[in-house]
């Protein structure tokens, strides 16, 4: 099973690494990180780098396409070369998935029209501009398309996908292997739960 994760300009590292840590356990899994050119790709300048094993041109098909999001996503919504590649991967895929604002690229490629989908809470308007209906769930299955909400929900999506690809026991074993047992110290993981002070700090920029 070939799982392809494109590394895009200014991607969010956990969007890619979280699902990777789950899906690499699938029997027969081959995970390929792809980019416009092979070599290290950084999430932001002078920060974490992940190595792209192949270029987009090297990949002619995949079983699972997993599109991460990140701050650079909006700048790629009119990148015809990338969008055409996503469309091509989708035609042959068994599953086409996204994490966070990666769903915006699926939308821009015309894959979400008339479907329910999720994304990062700050990108709902853009998602719906592509004809999708936003739903406030962490993971949304629509046929072979699976979207996950913001960043950390990519792990939830990958575990749910693992259960569909194999079975629930296998997915649960993977969850145990990575000791995914969330017990966050704060209950501010969504806009509905965060205080105004937290929202104001985020709006100003945490750093």
List the helices and strands and how they pair.
Blueprint: E1 2-6, H1 13-23, E2 30-35, E3 39-42, E4 49-52, E5 54-55, E6 64-67, H2 80-92, E7 95-99, H3 102-108, E8 116-117, H4 124-129, E9 133-134, E10 139-142, E11 145-148, H5 153-165, H6 168-177, H7 196-204
Parallel strand pairs: 1-2, 1-6, 2-5, 6-7, 7-11, 8-9
Antiparallel strand pairs: 3-4, 10-11
Task: Describe this protein's structure.
Helix 1 packs parallel to helix 5 and helix 5 packs antiparallel against helix 6. The chain has a 7-stranded mixed beta sheet, sandwiched between helices. It has 207 residues and is an alpha/beta fold. The longest helix is centred in the middle third of the chain and has 13 residues. The N and C termini lie far apart (40 Å). It has 7 helices and 11 strands. GO terms for molecular function: lyase activity. Its EC number is 4.2.1.-. InterPro entries: Class_I_gatase-like (IPR029062), DJ-1/PfpI (IPR002818), INH-QAR (IPR052158). It is an enzyme of class 4 (lyase).
């Amino acid at each position: 099973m070939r799982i392809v994760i494109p590394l895009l300009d200014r991607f969010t590292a956990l969007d890619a690494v979280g699902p990777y840590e789950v899906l690499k356990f699938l029997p027969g899994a081959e995970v390929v990180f792809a980019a416009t050119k092979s070599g290290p790709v950084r999430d932001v300048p002078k920060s974490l780098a992940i190595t792209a094993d192949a270029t987009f041109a090297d990949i002619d098909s995949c079983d699972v396409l997993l599109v991460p999001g990140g701050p650079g996503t909006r700048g790629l919504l009119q990148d015809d070369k990338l969008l055409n590649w996503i469309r091509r991967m989708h035609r042959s895929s068994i599953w086409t998935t996204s994490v966070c604002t990666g769903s915006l690229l699926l939308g821009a490629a015309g894959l979400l029209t008339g479907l329910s989908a999720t994304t990062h809470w700050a990108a709902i308007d853009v998602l719906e501009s592509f004809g999708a209906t936003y739903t406030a769930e962490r993971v949304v299955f629509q046929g072979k398309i699976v979207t996950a909400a913001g960043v950390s929900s990519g792990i939830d999506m990958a575990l749910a996908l693992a259960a569909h690809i194999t079975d629930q026991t296998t997915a649960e074993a993977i969850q145990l292997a990575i000791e995914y047992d969330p017990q966050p110290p704060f209950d501010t993981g969504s806009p509905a739960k965060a205080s105004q002070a937290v929202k104001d700090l985020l709006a100003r920029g945490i750093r």
